[in-house]
Amino acid sequence: MNRNLLRPITREELEAYDRDGVVWLRGILDPEWVELLASTIEEIVAKKLGQTIDFTGLGLALASERLAASGRWSDPDRNWGTPGQLNGNVLLDPQVKPIRERGHYISATDAWKTHAAMRELALRSPAPKIAAALMKSRKVYLYGEQVLVKPPGTMEKTAWHSDQGYDHVQGEQVCGVRIPTTPETPEMGQVQYLKGSHKSGEIFKVNYFISDATDDDIGVPVPAIEGHEADFDLAVYAPVPGDVVVHHLRTLHGAGGNASTDRTRAAVTIRYAGDDSSYKFRRFAPPQDSVSPVLKDGDRLDGEPERFPQAEL
């Protein structure tokens, strides 16, 4: 397996990442890694590896009281995703009209801890090398990964958000390397990014991913981009297998549903932290296995290498 980039990252691409907080790197990843990722995602979803959430199932259950809390925020006293919090606030894409049945929007995190191929991809593929170059960091630590799958007929949008408020990490050298497994077209609900939104340093309120509802009383309100996209300087890309899109963890982004009748949108975003990063407990972060019983705010991530391992460069 080729562990090197297929080509160098250009000066223009480095400048775009610094300026916009996001960059599309074309033809940089060996297709073998994408093939490995595609089969890994299928296995993760089929076997429900890691921490899996069916966002469509969550949304459909909101109309009844059958749904108890689906988890906790990192603060154990705070429920995450109850009917009262979300009912009536799920963002559905009006362009998606399922032919037979709705596709189910699936999220899976922390599969790298149990799945050897995902661990290999996250720690020993070209992905951390890409992160190191863009972050200008000598070392790269794995924070975690998130698989997102939107099959044909998935109606749920992805609400506008930035990742850093969901993660127990702080610093400037933080990014997400998104690797798609299929060519992405407009009808599949491409991810959109608000250019330059990382520059303010603000940590935006976290939401429920399929809803812009929030209980967060700490973060800055997310701008009203939904429904007003033409008023903002947005970047949208059409990556194909072998491409990656990298964004700063503070960059705001969102996506539509999948109106395709036969193509699934599947990708993994691997989150990395660099030299200047440190641990930061965030009480409104969603349920995840990244709350450290060892580290305190400001501690370096290498203080708990099993939870935040250093990637090979």
Structure commentary:
The protein has 313 residues and is of the alpha+beta class. It has one domain: Jelly Rolls, CATH 2.60.120. Helices cover 18% and strands 19% of the residues. The protein has 6 helices and 13 strands. The strands form 3 sheets. It has a 7-stranded antiparallel beta sheet.
Q: What tags apply to this protein structure?
A:
four-stranded antiparallel β-sheet; alpha+beta; Jelly Rolls; 313 residues
List the helices and strands and how they pair.
Blueprint: H1 11-20, E1 22-25, H2 31-47, E2 51-54, H3 55-61, H4 83-86, E3 106-109, H5 116-124, H6 126-135, E4 141-150, E5 158-161, E6 169-170, E7 174-180, E8 191-194, E9 234-236, E10 244-248, E11 253-255, E12 265-273, E13 278-279
